[in-house]
Give the backbone structure.
Amino acid sequence: MSVLQRPIEQYETVATWRDGLSKQWGGDPLAEEPEKLTALAEFCEFVGEEPDPIVHKCFRVRKSDGETVISSKWRTIYADKIKEFRTRAGGNMEARRTAAAVQSFLIHNGVMIQV
Amino acid sequence: MEFQEVVGTRRSIRFFDPDRPVEQEKIQKILEAMLRASCAVNAHWLKAVVVKRDDIPLEELEKMKNPVQANVIALAKVHIYLYADLSVVNRVKGARLKQLFDVGVMAASHGWSHKFVDEVVYPQILKPMTESAGYSVAAAFDCGVAACQGLLMAFDLGLGACLTAFNAPIVNKITKVPEEWLPLYSLNVGYSLEGKVAGGQRPRPDFAEQYFLNSFGNSFPRDPKVVKELQDSKLIQQQAPVEGRREQVRQLARQLGLPE
């Protein structure tokens, strides 16, 4: 059974991704290159999580002042997962592009991540 | 390139050709430029360890990456890890200052003598300085001056470069530097894929906000004729945004398998 409980485009974080890509590049890159959504869906299956919780876990509320800050721990966990995902996909340029789509999803949701 | 054009052409390059090697002699020239930098009390705090990316076992290279710096580590062929050797002042005890006196650089005309260095400068100024809170800041300033010379040399040699922070606990296992060396930055070097314009000169604050004449608040007058001269000498170049830059970045991201 899929971990996605609804069409992937309906997740809030995916909408944010779409909006970010459109603002940056114009048009609707997710519609023009649906393989990006496919890559994200595959990653979600790979880690067994839906898109929104993946992004939400990358942030935490700092106890000292209540500010929302990046969770280094979770960002590192997902960076490692992306590397693993990339390796499983073959580690070639196509695999890099697939993994890059997942990074793009996180980046446009405010998670600066390089792998 | 002429000096002013080198200064004007320097950009922080983030897209390197991951496959094109950097010639050994160019790396040496970068280091030689650093060694010629101005430095307080001739101490020369800056130490550098050149690490060639392809010499690092893949597993180690992966460990050096972190979520905010992985791309440059992966793409730049050469990483020059820069450190401040904070022990140098108490190790040389003024000897490098006396050397300047011996070769006629510093003289009695400005109050210098071996006796002054041995009895005043080292024991009363330099040694206490090394115990003060601001010591590492002073050392890091001079290291920055030297690093900048190396950075500019890279561009003069047709290379691209950028300075980034690095994860010292991991990198130090590879560089094996003494514990007292203070990690500063990595000068990442390689051939740029961004072209010479590389997006144009980066946005900068207003000149008048930054520089003053005689006292703060009285901005240093900026003469348009001088600006024009500097445009002619290419110290001042086309400013970002440059037409087509976004497309260039997108194309490079695709070429290298990076996110968009």
Remarks:
- The interface with chain B takes residues 21, 24-25, 29, 72, 75-76, 79, 83, 93, 96-97, 99-101, 103-104, 107, 112-115 of chain A (CB under 8 Å).
- The radius of gyration of chain A is 14 Å.
